[in-house]
Amino acid sequence: VQGTGGSSAVSKCSAAARGYIQDRFLRLLVGRRRRRAPLVHRGYYIRARAVDHCVQDFLLKTQSHPRTQILSLGAGFDSLYFRLKDMGLLHHTVVYEVDFPNVACQKATLIKRIKELSALVGDVRGEGLGVITFSGEDYKLLGVDLSELSELERALEEAGLDNEIPTLFIAEVVLTYMENSRSDALIQWAAEHFSQACFLLYEQIHPEDPFGCVMQQHFSQLNSALHSLAQYPDCEAQQRRFFEKGWSECSVMDMNEFFTHCTPEDEQQRVQALEPFDEYEEWHLKCSHYFVLTASKGMESSWTPLLSNMTVPHCDGPVRMAGSITAVVCATHSEISGLRRYGHHSVLIKPNVILTTGGFGEEDGQHCRMRNFHVLVKHAGYWKAGCVKKENPDKRWDERLYHTVSCLSSSLAVVVGGRTSPSSAGLGMLWLKFPETSNALDPGDVTVELVSLQPAAEPAALRWRHSTTEVIFKGKKYLFLYGGRSAMEPVLGDWYFLHTQELSCTVIPVEGPVPESRHSHSACSWKGGVLIAGGLGAVEQPLGSVFFLRELEHGFQWQTVETHPPLIPRYSHTAHVHDGKLLLVGGVWFHSSSVPGITVIDLMTGLCLDYAINVEHLEWPLMLHNHSSVFLPNEKELLLIGGGGNCFSFGTHLNPEPVSLSLSNILTSH
């Protein structure tokens, strides 16, 4: 448990060094320096932002009181006291910090040794005595095990804590490491013994979904299990807990809600522009698995820092599911390797032959951008898998992620866009040629020839997380290239029509209301036009709109597809059209009570039904974002290939095997 405190201090320090948080004291308190990934920086930014937002609100609301106090439980090497003191916010407030005796002693030694820190504390009251390892006029550092409540109470009394003045308790990922009976007792003790009290809690939620499983496993492997989760799995349970333990007011929100509603838009944009970033899914999943809670009792004016800019109600209850669809591991003759990847693309190049290219995943036991092309061939009800022979392997494939592959004939496909790293420019186009004749019964029969292209339309392709869809205009085929993002633009809303023969841009007039810019949306060919659904829009907010680009005599027209109930905003899903129904598969949404399964939209009536995916037959968490899917219309079978991602600092999860869903029930039932 002490190790988790050390590693979080290192992460906060790295976030401060990159400008996410303003904190010049962390580097003095944290010995080790490590540069963390942008995703980790964002995660620690939102944590620090939430705590600071609530602490400063407490100090503001109580500034008319002659004396107030802050008690930070499990404070570790946190710099809160030094920042508040430096900002001149502690005129009449004493800060008490409690942590394990050896942590408190280490911190006390550091403060005495470092001039910049000891100067802020000012006069030291005597040497560290017993549990009080450091004592200044407005700062006391105590070495006590929090789970021993009577010892804690004795130490605080000795240090001068006053239970009649406004007191803020802070527990930032601390209580969950204690047995529930002990953390509950602490929460109740704080409510009972202090006449004017506020409590700030930041912790994990949602242990049961795929991301939650990976998160729990990570903490168990560190030998620091998260005890709160089983009994208090969501925001509502945590809120009930505080009411039951004697607190009179309590508000709570997950970190997606906090970032959206309690962080000013200019600050959101500042943070989004600090580093090249392309891990939106994991950022939003991380935020839906952490919450911030504030509770109070006996305060003269109500303390509700989480309601400040809240114009929006709490995510309305659980998503209503129309039914469920059972997922099973694909029937195969041999183990399928090479498909543990995400950000790849899979396409049906012939009936029963699926080609998968690109992405990031596991190759020869290493995590890397994928070089190998992969093929799945269905024969007599079973899938066989293998690597594709590339006819000219020296042609650089530029191991790409978030590209598209469109089949133009039974022997030709075009690869458009994609990226290597998020700071690189997007990649251009490639032809993929496969021999027409091969009546593939075996993966080894499939060969692919790569041909580099420098078509006139190349600049249009320098993007990723876009879509390319076949449309028909006046009997001719075109590829409709839409949306995405580039190294310069975090979200694009433009489009191009590419003539399929020479891949040149053709100007075709488009009328109607232009959809807002988006990436990571879905696009399907339908009736000669395109259906665009969902996506991530500007300011990184998921979209719930569906548009149909419809062919007219002289061009195309954007039309809005009304859905009822309204489609829950989502992105990073895949989509297929069958028999007048649009199927959306997986993705990421902000409804943290469940993960997206299959949504069926009836394109005639607009009826929108959500189905859960039943994973009881799978032995591993099924993460359905950054996956690919292929629909086999004859069998009404949906194949889910790859998917997953880098789960914050909890490790990378890659779905180990392709999964099959039979959709015959839901496609015939309504």
From TrEMBL:
Pathway: tRNA modification; wybutosine-tRNA(Phe) biosynthesis. InterPro entries: Gal_Oxase/kelch_b-propeller, Kelch-typ_b-propeller, Ppm1/Ppm2/Tcmp, SAM-dependent_MTases_sf. GO terms for biological process: tRNA methylation; wybutosine biosynthetic process. It is an enzyme of class 2 (transferase). GO terms for molecular function: tRNA methyltransferase activity. Keywords: Methyltransferase, S-adenosyl-L-methionine, Transferase, tRNA processing. It catalyses: 7-[(3S)-3-amino-3-carboxypropyl]wyosine(37) in tRNA(Phe) + S-adenosyl-L-methionine = 7-[(3S)-(3-amino-3-methoxycarbonyl)propyl]wyosine(37) in tRNA(Phe) + S-adenosyl-L-homocysteine; 7-[(3S)-(3-amino-3-methoxycarbonyl)propyl]wyosine(37) in tRNA(Phe) + S-adenosyl-L-methionine + CO2 = wybutosine(37) in tRNA(Phe) + S-adenosyl-L-homocysteine + 2 H(+). It comes from the Eukaryota. Probable S-adenosyl-L-methionine-dependent methyltransferase that acts as a component of the wybutosine biosynthesis pathway. Wybutosine is a hyper modified guanosine with a tricyclic base found at the 3'-position adjacent to the anticodon of eukaryotic phenylalanine tRNA. May methylate the carboxyl group of leucine residues to form alpha-leucine ester residues. This is tRNA wybutosine-synthesizing protein 4. The gene is Lcmt2.
